[in-house]
Amino acid sequence: MEDREEEKKLLDAAGVDGRVLLMQDGGKPVGTVIVDLKDTILHIVRFSVNGYDFTEKPGSEETFVLDTLMRSAASYGEDHGADSIVTDFPDFFDFFRLRGFDVDETHAFTPMSTIVRYEIGGM
């Protein structure tokens, strides 16, 4: 997030020292994900999607934004030495389970390799 003052407000509200990743479409914000790196574990602390309140199953547009934010978070974690991802909240509507995460009543978790994959050789 380029606006460091706004990022600090969001991080303070979440109670973490991490980063806020912002997704835009045509220069307009559509969603954010707050991440916090603790040792080698990337914590997904909070999602926010404009117009979506997480009280019902996300539609296709919300799912696209959430999936993109989750993958951006994983990329951030990979770039900063994380080897696993965990949410700081329970899975909602099986969103993470459907993407290969293990889930329990309090969070979802997976090795980084579930989301970030490398291919050796040609393109």
User: What series of H and E elements makes up the topology?
Assistant: HEEEHEEE
Derived from helix and strand composition plus strand pairing, the structural class reads alpha+beta
Shape: globular
Major beta sheet, specifics? 6 strands, mixed
Distance between the termini: 31 Å
Strands across the major sheet, in which order? Answer: 1-2-3-4-6-5
How many DSSP helices?
2
Radius of gyration: 14 Å
Strand content: 25-35%
- How many strand units? 6
Q: State the helical fraction.
A: 25-40%
Report low-confidence residues grouped into runs of 5 or more: none
Round the mean pLDDT to the nearest integer and report it. Answer: 94
Name the descriptors.
globular; alpha+beta; 123 residues; single chain; 6-stranded mixed β-sheet; 30% strand
Question: What would you note in describing this structure?
Answer:
The protein is an alpha+beta fold and 123 residues long. Helices cover 25% and strands 30% of the residues. It has 2 helices and 6 strands; from the N terminus they run αβββαβββ. The chain has helices spanning 4-14, 60-79, and strands at residues 19-25, 28-38, 41-49, 84-87, 102-103, 108-111. It has a 6-stranded mixed beta sheet with strand order 1-2-3-4-6-5, with helices on both faces. The protein is globular, with a radius of gyration of 14 Å.
Question: Quick recap of the structure?
Answer:
By secondary structure, this protein is an alpha+beta fold. The chain contains two helices and six strands.
